[in-house]
Amino acid sequence: MKVLALEGSPRRGNSSMLLDWVLEGVREGGGEVTRLRVVELDIHPCTGCDSCLSTGECILADDMAWLVERVMESWHLVLASPVYFYHLPAQLKAFIDRLQPLWVRRSLLHQDPLQRGGLLFLGVGATRGERLFEGVLLTLKCVASFLGLEVLEPLLVRGVDAPGEVARREDLAREARRRGRELLSRGPGPGL
Hints:
This protein is α/β, with parallel strands linked by helices. The protein has one domain (2-184): Flavodoxin domain (Rossmann fold, 3-Layer(aba) Sandwich), CATH 3.40.50. It has seven helices and six strands. It has helices at 14-28, 52-55, 64-73, 90-97, 100-108, 134-147, 170-184; strands at residues 2-7, 32-37, 76-82, 118-124, 150-151, 155-157. Strands 1, 2, 3, 4, 5 and 6 form a six-stranded parallel beta sheet that branches. Helix 6 (134-147) links the parallel strand 4 (118-124) and strand 5. The protein is globular and about 50 Å long. 36% of the residues are buried.
């Protein structure tokens, strides 16, 4: 079972460690993982040109076409990211904005009706604010709907700011590994 894991942090940090643990669980369960750091990809921001509205294809020439193929061939999507100013870092948000052609394919062109597996979000934020993850989760709910993914219970960590701070939290390591193994229990149905 293919799992695409996207690391949204512009640097390796606490959300990267959470992702390490989740992917350990996925691999323990026999899952096949593709892990990518969004900051290392060439993803231009959406220009709002609307070219994709008739074709379901983006006209920008960068790594996004290749990345969309990875998204479409994967059963599950795992996004790991810090939360900056109550939302995703710019690099990960650019990826999400550039998924517009997939929304067009599904919503306007009625292509790709396949229901896939799940979208698991791993989020880390420095504050303890009750609403810290609300903007991110609302955005990801939208994204999951047009990708044919079920939004899974996110793993959210508040009050963590210092680099490597989550490494001292064995409870998080156990929970993250469990989530990785659990992800594989939401496998493809017959014939997929």
